[in-house]
């Protein structure tokens, strides 16, 4: 049997806003994020990297490994000190673009200077278990063509100091 509510209890209940309607089916768990409704939004934009004052900021050492015909394998980087031999060491900053790096690679690689050469960039980094991972991050052509990848900076590619850059030249 239901007890009668006092006048004060009835007034308190009447002052509360009504609860939101619950969808039919499974109960709603308010602690889990709800899936988005409607059409998906635009893809997240890359965070722009703040320009670096190159006169006042110390550059980082970028170890670049080049290979004609494809990227190196992850196994090529598995043992520290036994990285591939075709290495170029570049001192640069996190705001350096793939176009700048392309021009530097062209200085040391005759194949990259060909008019129709395509350079594909990948970062090589250790995962949380210490195993090396290779992730493709962009591509450029020997001749500047104002592609979007030409203007991407290392910082936009989630590059961290100590990562390697693997460049495939085709």
How many runs of DSSP E, i.e. beta strands? 5
CA-atom Rg in angstroms: 27 Å
Strand content: 15-25%
Average pLDDT across residues? 84
Order of helices and strands: HEEHEEE
**Between the first and last Cα atoms, what is the distance in angstroms?**
83 Å
Derived from helix and strand composition plus strand pairing, the structural class reads alpha+beta
Main sheet characteristics:
5 strands, mixed
How would you characterize the overall build of this protein?
This protein has 170 residues and is α+β, with helices and mostly antiparallel strands. Helices cover 12% and strands 24% of the residues. A hairpin with a 5-residue loop joins strand 3 (118-126) and strand 4.
What would the keywords be for this entry?
single chain, alpha+beta, 5-stranded mixed β-sheet
In short:
Pfam families: SAP18. With 170 residues, the chain is of the alpha+beta class.
List the helices and strands and how they pair.
Layout: H1 7-15, E1 60-68, E2 87-92, H2 98-108, E3 118-126, E4 132-141, E5 164-169
Parallel strand pairs: 1-5
Antiparallel strand pairs: 1-2, 3-4, 3-5
């Amino acid at each position: 049997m239901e007890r009668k509510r006092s006048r004060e209890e009835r007034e308190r209940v009447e002052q509360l806003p009504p609860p939101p309607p619950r969808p039919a089916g499974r109960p709603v768990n308010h602690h889990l994020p709800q899936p988005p409704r409607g059409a998906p939004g635009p893809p997240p934009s890359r965070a722009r990297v703040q320009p670096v004052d190159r006169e006042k900021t110390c550059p980082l050492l970028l170890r670049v490994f080049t290979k004609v015909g494809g990227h190196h394998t992850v196994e090529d980087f598995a043992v520290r000190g036994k990285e591939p031999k075709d290495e170029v060491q570049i001192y640069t900053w996190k705001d350096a673009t793939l176009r700048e790096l392309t021009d530097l690679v062209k200085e040391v690689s005759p194949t990259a200077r060909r008019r129709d050469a395509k350079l594909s960039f990948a970062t090589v980094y250790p995962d949380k278990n210490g195993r090396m991972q290779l992730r493709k991050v962009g591509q450029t052509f020997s001749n500047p063509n104002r592609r979007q990848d030409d203007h991407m900076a290392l910082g936009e590619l989630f590059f961290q100091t100590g990562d390697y850059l693997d460049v495939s030249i085709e």
